[in-house]
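[step 3/7] fold_predict: job queued, chain A
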Amino acid sequence: MLSRLLFPFWLVAVCLAGTGMAQESHLTETVSGGMYARSAFAHGYRHGYEEGYHLGNIDINMARMSRTKKSQFRGLSLGYAPEFGPRRSFEAGFQAGLKAGYADGYDGRPFRAVESARAVAVALESAPSPGDPSGGYFDQGVGAGYRDGLQQGASSAPAAAPLDLHLVGCANFHPDRPMGLPAQTSFCDGYQRGFVLGRGDALAPGAERPLEASK
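[step 4/7] structure written:
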């Protein structure tokens, strides 16, 4: 009888440990690990996508209606740690990934976060630039680029071709304080990558279903 009572707690402990290891492994993933290490937004996006995809799979398999309000996603594990960078940026990325992942999971599409991250992290230097040692400007660029790419993609034809990140313009550099060309270069590097990621999410099937704020 005692062994039956102890088994569920042991199983939960193993699952929690596995979740922690999976989250840490993001930073060591081939190609995309450097992106997550340098951008709290990108790292938060990956966490959010995984949570959303899992929920979407559960809801469709349980024949539940699609979640349409932000309040329906309360209580999710953010998976944030201070060493990941600014919490606000991580949370913004988490919300973006959550929406994209939920739509993919609910509609039965493949888990695409890994390939999407690798596509936008290609040829990324592993270490921050000397003009942006903390990676703050790069991270700002990823977040700003994602939002602009999402908006631009929403107005594009559904069958629009993938965009080469090197063709993305970067004219909205607004750093917290002037740091010159090195900071601008770092910001724009992040912006281009975030733009492609956001545009890809906007063009994905099901992206037209926005999450509404609770009333």
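[step 5/7] annotate
The two ends are 48 Å apart (CA to CA).
Confidence is low (pLDDT under 50) at residues 1-23.
exit 0
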